[in-house]
Amino acid sequence: MPIHQVAKITKAEKENELVTTFTFDIGLEGALPGQFLMVWLPGNDEKPYGIAGISPLKISVAARGPFSKKFASLKVGRRVWLRGPYGKGFKLSGKHILLVGGGYGFAPLRFLADEAMKRGIFATAICGARSKGLLMADAKCETILATDDGSAGIKGNVIDAMKSISGQGKFDTIYTCGPERMMAAVAYEAKKAKADCQLLLERYMKCGIGICGHCCMGEKLVCSDGPVFGFEILENPEFCKTFLNKAGKREPL
Ligand SMILES: Cc1cc2nc3c(=O)[nH]c(=O)nc-3n(C[C@H](O)[C@H](O)[C@H](O)COP(=O)(O)OP(=O)(O)OC[C@H]3O[C@@H](n4cnc5c(N)ncnc54)[C@H](O)[C@@H]3O)c2cc1C
């Protein structure tokens, strides 16, 4: 069995000013929202990307640095090498769930919304961004938009959007993915609302399978203990504070 699987790009859709969502010529049945793949571009590097859909496989890429800019610029017909899926995905639980995403962090939550709807779980989503040009496309469930500058949806952040629907009944579980401080604020709101919460974290990763320790946060490895964590991650000494940069040096987050 080869470690890497080759996948060819069949569609490249520009979702907003930063994010391109790729569709590939393979399926990844059984992979869970929240799990990730290591994407290798030969001659460049290998980096983790969340799964945005499985049938066919989709990956959303925000062009931020050298690797992601190269990845996001690939055209239909180009191939990438993938290994995975790795890590622990989101666990669906409850009857009514809330998905809160910031920026490209909304991509795995859209996939989670699809899986929830298949199981008859009622999902509501909040998608936040700095401005309209950075918003991701809606999920298939009801999607509330929030922008910091008010150029689309509610003027404010995802917490303002959560407060705007607080009278609409109780959510059993709140799922969140996006900037770490945003997820921390979402988790504290979840605590107040007596809902469970699952957070999808990011750290630089190299092996992706729990060997190298590059993604460690205190005693936890994001790649193999996560990347989805519960409330316990709020107590982690590195949460919202520090990360290991690509050279392995600890830096403020
Ligand atoms: C589990 C997981 C899932 C991911 N899913 C996606 C996804 O679906 N889509 C996507 O676009 N990206 C995703 N990423 C991020 C992706 O792996 C790359 O880090 C990202 O594309 C930037 O890589 P780069 O080499 O282009 O830029 P880099 O040069 O590595 O970074 C660009 C900028 O981002 C900062 N940065 C990068 N990583 C971190 C970090 N961990 N902590 C703090 N600052 C950081 C750098 O300081 C720099 O300013 C995921 C990461 C993880 C761990």
How would you describe this protein?
A hairpin with a 5-residue loop joins strand 17 (242-244) and strand 18 (250-252). The termini are far apart. The protein has helices spanning 66-72, 106-118, 158-164, 180-192, 222-225; strands spanning 5-14, 19-24, 36-40, 46-50, 53-54, 57-62, 79-86, 96-102, 122-129, 142-147, 154-155, 173-177, 196-200, 216-217, 220-221, 228-229, 242-244, 250-252. The chain contains five helices and 18 strands. The protein has two domains: 5-86, Translation factors (Elongation Factor Tu (Ef-tu), domain 3), CATH 2.40.30; 96-244, Nucleotide-binding domain of ferredoxin-NADP reductase (FNR) module (Rossmann fold, 3-Layer(aba) Sandwich), CATH 3.40.50. A seven-stranded antiparallel beta sheet has the order 4-3-7-1-2-6-5. The chain has a seven-stranded mixed beta sheet with strand order 11-10-9-8-12-13-16, sandwiched between helices. The chain has a two-stranded antiparallel sheet with strand order 14-15. With 253 residues, the chain is α/β, with parallel strands linked by helices. The protein is 17% helix and 34% strand. Bound molecules: flavin-adenine dinucleotide. Flavin-adenine dinucleotide is lined by residues 36, 47-50, 60-62, 64-68, 104, 107, 202-205, 227, 243, 253.
